[in-house]
Design a protein that fits this description.
Number of strands: 6
Radius of gyration: 19 Å
Mean pLDDT: 90
Distance between the termini: 34 Å
Strand content: 15-25%
Order of helices and strands: HHEHEEHEHHHEHEHH
Strand order of the largest sheet: 1-4-6-5
Structural class: alpha+beta
Number of helices: 10
CATH class: Alpha Beta
CATH topology: NADH Oxidase
Number of domains: 1
Helix content: 25-40%
Largest sheet: 4 strands, antiparallel
Low-confidence stretches: none
Shape: globular
């Protein structure tokens, strides 16, 4: 599939067939995280891949499964693969305190006007979604306000921050009209500017 075709097909999917995916297909999608950009090549993003149906159900329940359910189906629980994207801020501080980085900044760590670990986790999220589409699958993302259940359910270390969950699977027809779809795309001139704002 051409890259432009992948981009044209990528959207936030909210309905999946619950059938499992082949392990090699899941591996190919998960492995793209190694190619995600990272500030200073800190490589601070990671994922936990979840295929166990019981655990996926517990995650759906922890994040208010009823909010994500329509017609007796829950897209979080139905998605046969969850990929929990996490960021490890400490790896960025460690990298930017190495000799080559300190030599460029006069011996002090940079001031981080933007937390690169969050930016890089977002880049990882997009790569995972595009890799899923490239495999002929659908992907969606859900974020939550309270990550404590994920830390507990998955045993994620305290210094690793879960950022988002990418759901992956074969697409099922969506039965509920989503308000976001009615918004349409912004005009190109509202999002792309040349030379100056």
């Amino acid at each position: 599939m051409e890259f432009r075709e992948i981009l044209a097909q990528r959207r936030m999917h909210r309905a999946f067939l619950p059938e499992p995916l082949p392990e090699d297909q899941v591996d190919r999608i998960a492995n793209v995280i190694r190619h995600a950009p990272s500030g200073g090549f800190s490589q601070g993003s990671s994922i936990v891949v979840i295929t166990d149906a019981d655990l996926r159900g517990r995650i759906a329940e922890a994040f208010g499964g009823e909010h994500y359910s329509t017609n007796g189906r829950n897209f979080i629980a139905d998605a046969p693969v969850h990929m929990v994207i996490s960021a490890n801020e400490a790896l960025y501080h460690a990298r930017y305190n190495e000799a080559d980085k300190l030599a460029a900044t006069g011996g002090v760590e940079i001031t981080w006007p933007v937390p690169y670990w969050h930016v890089d986790a977002g880049a990882s999220m997009m790569l995972l979604m595009l890799a899923a589409v490239d495999e002929g699958l659908a992907a969606g993302v859900f974020g939550v306000l309270d990550w404590q259940p994920i830390w507990e359910l998955l045993g994620i270390p305290d210094d690793v921050l879960p950022v988002a969950v990418v759901t992956v699977g074969k697409p099922a027809p969506e039965t509920r009209e989503r308000s976001s779809r009615k918004r349409g795309w912004k005009p190109l001139d509202d999002v792309v500017r040349w030379e100056r704002w």
